[in-house]
Amino acid sequence: MTAVAERTVDELVAEARSRLPGRVRPDDLAVAIADGALVVDTRSEAQRRRDGELPGAVVVERNVLEWRLDPASPHRLEEAGDRERPIVVVCNEGYASSLAAASLQALGLVNATDLDGGYRAWKAFTQTGS
User: Strands, E, within 7-127: which ranges?
Assistant: First the structure.
């Protein structure tokens, strides 16, 4: 039996973030969209219903993310045909999205990253401007 190195989820998130090119800050999300980034909201339907939609984002549930964004997948979104396109993954608080963006990078989507602080940080920024 092969020994598996045990790590904590915090270590996994830190490792994922170390590979992400410039996590997008909430105050820079509009610029990323204007520059052509594909923003992908992975929050659950219940979270979106409770907290609100993210304007300009496509909704892709986390459990199908890789299939919908892999340019080689027959199940990909039309918007996901370019491995070079910047992709900003958004979750509720910015933890699951870091892991998801690292997974997309492993598929060769070299400009996948996530929204620092997630939807909650973006919502707070839009309400306070800081």
Answer: 38-41, 57-59, 87-90, 112-114
Q: What is the mean pLDDT of the chain?
A: 94
Contact 104, 69 (CB under 8 A): yes
With tokens 């491995």, the residue in question is: 83
Burial category of 5 from C-beta neighbours within 10 Å (exposed 0-12, middle 13-18, buried 19 and up)? exposed
Total number of residues shown for the chain = 130
Give the Cα-Cα-Cα angle 90, 94, 97 (nearest 5 degrees). Answer: 55
Say if pTM beats, i.e. exceeds, 0.90.
yes
Q: What are the DSSP calls for 95-112, one per residue?
A: SHHHHHHHHHHHTT-TTE
Q: Which residues of 24-40 are buried (b: 16+ CB within 10 A; e: fewer)?
A: bebebbeebbeeebbbb
| Tokens 């996901």 -> residue | 80
Q: What pLDDT sits at residue 58?
A: 97
Task: Return d(Cα 96, Cα 59) in angstroms, integer.
Answer: 15
Q: How many other CB atoms are there within 10 angstroms of residue 126's CB atom?
A: 14
Residues 6+ apart with CB under 8 A from 4: none
